[in-house]
Specification:
Blueprint: H1 3-12, H2 19-25, H3 27-46, E1 48-53, E2 58-61, H4 63-69, H5 73-76, H6 91-102, E3 107-114, E4 120-131, E5 137-146, H7 148-170, E6 174-179, E7 184-187, H8 190-195, H9 216-229, E8 234-241, E9 247-258, E10 264-273, H10 275-289, H11 299-316, E11 319-327, H12 330-337, H13 339-356, E12 362-367, E13 370-378, H14 381-395, E14 399-401, E15 404-406, E16 410-417, H15 424-440, E17 446-448, H16 458-473, E18 476-485, E19 491-502, E20 506-508, H17 510-520, H18 523-543, E21 550-554, H19 557-560, H20 565-576, E22 583-588, H21 595-607, E23 611-617, H22 624-627, E24 634-637, H23 639-642, H24 649-665, E25 668-671, H25 677-686, E26 690-691, E27 700-701, H26 702-710
Parallel strand pairs: 16-17, 19-21, 21-22, 22-23, 23-24, 24-25, 25-26
Antiparallel strand pairs: 1-2, 1-5, 3-4, 4-5, 6-7, 6-10, 8-9, 9-10, 11-13, 11-16, 12-13, 14-15, 18-19, 18-26, 18-27, 19-20
Helix pairs in contact: 10-24, 12-13, 13-14, 16-17, 18-20
Length: about 725
């Protein structure tokens, strides 16, 4: 280093009196000064440096000091550090600092300063006192480093932590952290409010202690899977105990916390109480598989069981039997005594049949006065006949009602696996044939299937033949039943209902010809005709200036699964000119036997802009789990639940459960079969949106429906 440079270095550090003596004394001191200059250079480049006298007057500042404070050097020299005071720190803070350095000790701390432009910056500060021989400070050198970015990050983290703390501590969800072994590391206050335990009860305790015994293995496997795989998120359902010995259903999302080594160090659990939802789901599922009046299994549950029993019987070479049972002339009982008496008799009959069969057998109600019995692992037809005689005798015992005794009888048709059929449908069909053979011979009897019963009735043959002609000759017409907004009374749509007026046989009820059309496949051309005519008529009314309305058309199971369904729908809309938004297609729950395929088809229909709905909801097997997976817009509550909603608490509870689930999923709900003001009042109070039924209007012909439209306030 040049001599001049050494001199400059000494000047800069405020020791000019050393210059001559050092240079003249020893060459080794030159080297020391060089090292000192190098240190000074490095310090100036990396840190903010200032030197003050004993009173704090600034004697020296480096370029870094000027840059961050935005003051020029001449503005700083002769001043003290109060020029930079931001007002952030209390006087006691600086009092402590002066006490420390004044006693000859080094002070370290963080200071927020104010720059010339009024902005603030943070510096990590070290102040070193230079002492006289008597140990008194005569100068101070302060070395600072800019930590503004670090402090901002800390503040951001603090705010973020505060926000998440507020969310966690005020959330109704149960938020907790457990270690890899399942011990609690943290629990949110909501654990106390929901479960009743003090937060201290959870400290270092295992999560497993609060989980229902039957669900612990599931939870343990999930935790182990998270530990091994480190999956980003896992959704789990299990039950958890409360202090009051209740069990709550919890939906839990588990997220792993992964340390720098890639190991799962802990797990974050967010648990939501879904007890009410699960209760509604179980209720809907039970309703889906059980008859609402007798609480017996319904057709869906019976068929599921029958398929399983036949599969097992084939493997083990066992015999089983099914028995169709009708109460004789039950319609007369309803007509003479009323539906209340009829319902009581059905309930009593269901109980008596159940008491006559074995524990491994099953009885179901198909509807009306029709029951079906499954007898498993039978040894002979004699055993079957013995059970059937027992049922017959039991049903013949008097039934008391309103102080009177009533006598009923029954007819039974029986088919045995494997002699009468090896498939469920075949057995059902042949047991039904045996039943009608008993009815044809005078009722109140028992009949096993015989091959000569295969011959179909004359009426059946006649209807099938005439149905083919009717489709070709277009003997059908469509009636339209209005749908109304229950809150405003406004017309919002109509349902297309096919009707058959035979030129010779007269009006044939839909429940007579629709099943034949389904079985023979004639439902495909008939359904297409209804869809086309309905769309044409709706478009015609719109073109005439009537209020645009959504037309609902039923799709049968065979229609729904025909390969060219979407092509036909698009073709009909294009040819009729009806916009997709004015069409709604209704399907029954029976289409969901193939859930994934059904969901895909419904989604394609909705992609066309067409609305979708489930007709007769509650009579099939849909559950909350199924419904939330389906791309549907509307649930139509079956009329059987509406009929006595104002009188029957169970029917009312069922409707409320359906409305609750629909509201949760954002689905529209329409009630079918609204016939009186009492039903309407209950539905309106429960929040049902829409309804249709005889209270508002019976199904109307196209001509009469047009008159109905003309009578609306703003019809045209």
């Amino acid at each position: 280093m040049r001599k001049e440079d050494l001199g400059t270095a000494c000047d800069s550090w405020a020791y000019p009196f050393l210059k001559t003596a050092l240079l003249d004394r020893d060459e080794s001191l030159k080297e020391a000064l060089k090292e000192l200059a190098d240190v000074r250079y490095a310090l100036d480049q990396s840190s903010i440096v200032a030197i003050t006298d004993a009173r704090g007057t600034i004697l020296y500042v480096n370029d870094q000091f000027c840059r961050i404070s935005q003051y020029e050097r001449k503005e700083l020299l002769g001043q003290d550090h109060r020029i930079l005071n931001s007002g952030y720190h209390p006087p006691s803070y600086f009092k402590n600092m002066w006490a420390t350095i004044g006693s000859g000790n080094v002070w370290r701390g963080e200071i927020r300063n104010k720059a010339k432009d009024g902005s603030f910056y943070w510096v990590d500060t070290t102040i070193v006192p230079f002492l006289t021989e008597q140990g008194k400070p005569y100068q101070y050198i302060s070395i600072r480093n800019d930590i503004s970015l670090l402090k901002k990050m800390e503040e951001d983290i603090r705010k973020s932590e505060e926000m998440y703390r507020l969310i966690t501590e005020n959330s109704s969800d149960l938020i907790s952290i457990i270690d890899a072994e399942g011990r609690f590391l943290y629990v949110s206050p909501s654990h106390h409010s929901l479960l009743g335990y003090e937060l201290s009860d959870f400290e270092r305790r295992y999560m497993y202690e609060w989980i229902h015994e039957e669900d612990r293995e599931t939870f343990h496997k999930a935790v182990q899977e998270q530990r091994i795989t480190g999956k980003s998120s896992l959704l789990l359902e299990f039950r958890i105990h409360t202090k009051h010995n209740d069990d709550y259903d919890m939906e839990t999302r588990i997220n792993p916390v992964i340390d720098p080594s890639g190991t799962v160090s802990s797990l974050i659990l967010v648990m939501r109480n879904i007890t009410e939802r699960k209760s509604s789901e179980r209720k809907i599922r039970h309703l889906a598989y059980h008859d609402t009046l007798t609480d017996l299994p319904n057709r869906r549950l019976f068929m599921d069981r029958l398929r399983k029993e036949i599969h097992q019987a084939k493997q083990l070479r066992l015999q089983l039997a099914i028995m169709f049972l009708d109460l004789d002339r039950f319609k007369n009982i309803n007509d003479s005594l009323g539906h209340e008496a009829g319902d009581l008799i059905l309930i009593e009959a269901a109980q008596r049949i159940s008491q006559c069969i074995r524990s491994n057998d099953m009885v179901a109600r198909l509807g009306g006065d029709e029951f079906i019995v499954l007898l498993t692992n039978i040894s002979s037809s004699e055993e079957v006949e013995s059970i059937s005689r027992r049922i017959q005798t039991s049903l013949q015992e008097p039934i008391g009602f309103s102080g009177k005794s009533f006598h009923i009888s029954c007819s039974m048709g029986i088919a045995i696996f494997p002699v009468d059929g090896r498939e469920p449908k075949e057995l059902m069909k042949r047991a039904d044939m045996a039943l009608y053979a008993v009815k044809d011979s005078g009722r109140n009897g028992i009949s096993f299937f015989r091959l000569d019963m295969e011959e179909r009735s004359l009426e059946r043959i006649l209807l099938e033949n005439e149905l083919k002609k009717a489709i070709q000759q277009e003997q059908f017409h469509i009636d339209y039943q209005p749908k109304l907004d229950l809150a405003t009374g406004e017309l919002i749509g109509m349902e297309a209902l096919v009707r058959w007026n035979h030129p010779e046989l007269g009006r044939i009820p839909p429940n007579k010809f629709i099943p034949i059309a389904e079985e023979t496949g004639l439902i495909l051309p008939l359904g297409e005709w209804v869809l086309r005519r309905g769309c044409e008529q709706n478009k015609k009314w719109q073109d005439q200036g009537y209020l645009p309305l959504k037309l609902s058309v039923n799709l049968s199971v065979r229609q729904f699964y025909q390969s060219d369904l979407l092509v036909k729908i698009k073709e009909i809309l294009q040819q009729t000119g009806l916009e997709p938004q004015w069409l709604e297609l209704e399907v029954t729950e029976s289409v969901f036997s193939d859930m994934d395929n059904a969901a895909a088809i419904l989604q394609k229909i909705r992609d066309l802009g067409i609305h979708t709905s489930i007709d007769d909801f509650g009579t099939g097997y849909s559950s909350f789990g199924y419904i939330q997976r389906l791309p549907i817009d509307t649930l139509k509550i079956d009329a059987s639940f509406i009929r006595d909603i104002h009188q029957n608490k169970e029917s009312h509870a069922i409707v409320k459960a359906i409305l609750t689930i629909a509201q949760t999923l954002g689905l529209n709900v329409i009630a079918e079969g609204v016939e009186n003001e009492e039903q309407l009042a209950v539905l309106s109070e429960d929040g049902c949106d829409q309804g249709q039924g005889f209270l508002f209007s019976k199904p109307l012909s196209g001509h009469d429906f047009e008159k109905y439209l003309s009578g609306l306030p703003a019809a045209k």
